[in-house]
Amino acid sequence: MMAIAILSASILLVLASVIHLASIGIALARCRPRAKMPPPKLHAPAVTIIRPVCGLENFIEETLRSTFLLDYPRLELLFCAARADDPVIPLVRRLMADYPWIDARLLIGDERISGNPKLNNMFKGWREARHDWIVFADSNVAMPRDYVQRLLAGFRGRAALVCSPPIGSRPHGFWAEVECAFLNTYQARWQYVADSIGMGFAQGKTMMWRRADLEHAGGIRVLGSEVAEDAASTKAVRAMGHTVRLIDDPFRQPLGARSAGEVWRRQMRWAQLRRASFPLQFAPEIVSGGVLPIACVGGIAAASDLPAVAAMLAFAGVWYGAEVALAWFAHWHVSRRTVLAAIVRDLLIPVLWIGAWRDTSFVWRGNEMSVADEDVTVAAGARD
Fold first, then answer.
1. 4, 73, 151, 153: which is deepest, by most CB within 10 A?
2. Kind of pairing, strands 104-108 and 159-163?
3. How confident is the model at residue 178 (pLDDT cuts 50, 70, 90)?
4. C-alpha span between 11 and 166 (Å, rounded)
5. How would you label 14-43 residue by residue, b for 16+ Cβ within 10 Å and e otherwise?
6. How far apart are CA 134 and CA 70, in angstroms?
7. CA 60 to CA 350: how far, in whole Å?
């Protein structure tokens, strides 16, 4: 019996190690820094960027200002707010005044087409957009000057939607480091693995559509068929026989300070959404971190009369050292706390996995939402 247990642990350990290192290699190939894209050609298509805004977030002026600094001549910027008293509106108006030569508008209103408050906020932008290429971009994404060119370059082959996962940058405090560990060397890594084997899925931080493609899929209202618009986008694209593509060298999201509660609630919400939209792909996540392989090393070492703690520490050094190497070569955030943050992340993954199966409701920006019936109850006084 002991021999069977050791053999099983050894097989699991080898498989986990090979998959882990292979995923690191794929992400390294896709996420290494690229040279800046050349300026757009004269015949480059006109593009509309729709940015839903809600409240004052960390680095909000910097991320919104980056929209006005793009190196692209034919742009329409549409900022969408659900309420006229949202505190971010004065900032948007000031930025528009700072760049009067930019074609930018602020749209205010809350037309409910779905149970997704963010989609409801973006709907008026889609309706008002004048161009055939349309980007949905969250307000906390920092846009490099060649943002539009890099998205357009992703439209090749059967791609009908081009996205970028968020890469956490400039964390303040340990829990923001944990957020980076989730976003960068875990979630982004696995998203690039999926994309590289032809199973790419959308990420709502940045999504570029051709209007004709989304209209062919059923129009923007089809994005309300799931609680999350990116999950609905993925299913709509696949239903058309097309693919979702990720850009190489993804865009950054400056984090600032994060509390433990904020990180927990955000990661739990995302886990619940993944479980509800893609349960088969979500199921293996419980064993996707380093906890189980490290435990296998300890068990094998103990059964072989070897120092278990030393073996576990040595293996953990290799496991997390590979993640640090990925972050280093991709020019993502790395600090003295990166490994500890990744360990805390991996300890949280099974807890989040269990919670995602048990709980169906969460609160997003004051809105009570459920992944069970995709219904949304807006709390009194809540903002979209």
1. 151
2. unpaired
3. very high
4. 34
5. eebbeebeebbebbbebbeeeeebeebeee
6. 15
7. 33
Query: What distance lies between CA 344 and its chain's CA centroid?
Result: 20
What architecture is the 30-279 domain classified under in CATH? Alpha-Beta Complex (3.90)
DSSP assignment of 241-270: T-EEEEPSSPPEEEEEE--HHHHHHHHHHH
Three-class DSSP category at 108: strand
Q: How many CB atoms lie within 10 A of CB 270?
A: 16
Q: How confident is the model at residue 290 (pLDDT cuts 50, 70, 90)?
A: very high
pLDDT tens sequence across 46-91: 999 999 999 999 999 999 999 999 999 899 999 999 999 999 999 9
Beta bridge partners of 376: 369
Q: How many whole angstroms separate alpha carbon 199 and alpha carbon 339?
A: 29
Nearby residues of 11 by Cβ (< 8 Å), 6 or more positions away:
none
Domains in the chain: boundaries: 30-279
Give the residue ranges of DSSP H helices in the chain: 2-31, 60-68, 89-98, 117-128, 147-153, 174-182, 189-196, 211-217, 229-239, 260-277, 279-282, 291-303, 308-329, 338-358
